[in-house]
Amino acid sequence: MEPKYKRVLLKLSGESLAGNQKSGIDFETVLKICEPIKKCVDMGVEVAIVVGGGNFWRGRTSGKMDRTRADHMGMLATAINALGVCDALEQLGVDTRVQTAISMREIAEPYIRGKAIRHLEKGRVVVFGCGTGNPFFSTDSAASLRAAEIEADIILKATMVDGVYDCDPKTNENAVKYDNLSFGEVVEKQLKVMDGTAATMCRENDIPILVFSIDRPMNIYDAVCGEGIGTLVN
Ligand code: GTP
């Protein structure tokens, strides 16, 4: 197959890295997720990744904690995940670099846009950790920000559902999946594609989003090849 996109920003939820475990990292699962990423890189596609941290910690649901501190903990969780994803990719023979939005130079490179782009051009997968580096922003927002900065062709949002539905498919068996949506429809119908900040960022910068399920990791490869999976928002 031929790739449809030259440079993609893959958003992986933290949850997806836990596999059947409820939390933490299931490394076998991470390896499975990384196999299609390697296939994409081998095809010459430039892949940048933003990882969530929900498998360890979620700032927004931390209850009584101070939100800023809770979000700092969430950002550290994404850094752990970034290192895990990198390790799996390297075990598969893919060259990688981790860049973090919060400086932790002993562990990873700091985020530098120009360096990230050079790494991508050299066929390295760049995994961005620590979200945007700011509290009150989600890793979806980090994905949209980094996608805009590195001029990615699309955001591939690999998630736990296989697309965007008109209502919650978990609670409504008649829920209908959309194949295509405009950003206008997402706002109008109040559909949950990404959080509002992230969706606005993508709309204003003309970055399409493809939402699809990570249950079948090879979906990442199919998405890059433009196979009609998931829901495309543009
Ligand atoms: P080129 O410019 O293509 O040579 O990129 P490069 O990443 O190979 O060069 P560089 O000499 O910058 O980095 C060599 C190694 O050191 C890579 O594994 C980088 O990820 C790592 N590295 C670079 N800067 C930092 C840093 O600030 N902290 C940490 N922990 N590693 C770094």
User: How many DSSP-defined strands?
Assistant: 11
**Poorly predicted segments:** none
> Counting H and I runs of at least 4 residues, what is the number of helices?
7
- CATH architecture, by name, is 3-Layer(aba) Sandwich
Task: Give the CATH level 1 class.
Answer: Alpha Beta
Gyration radius (Cα, Å) is 16 Å
Mean pLDDT across every amino acid position: 95
Measured by DSSP, the beta-strand proportion falls in 15-25%
User: What is the ordering of alpha helices and beta strands?
Assistant: EHEHEEHEHEEEEHHEHE
CATH superfamily: Acetylglutamate kinase-like
Strand arrangement, largest sheet? 4-3-5-2-1-6-10-11-9
Bound molecules: guanosine-5'-triphosphate
Going by helix content, strand content and strand pairing, the class is alpha/beta
Residues in helix, %: 25-40%
Instruction: Kindly report how far apart the N and C termini lie.
Output: 23 Å
CATH names the topology as Carbamate kinase
Number of domains: 1
Specify the biggest β-sheet. 9 strands, mixed
**Per the principal axes of the C-alpha atoms, what is the gross shape?**
globular
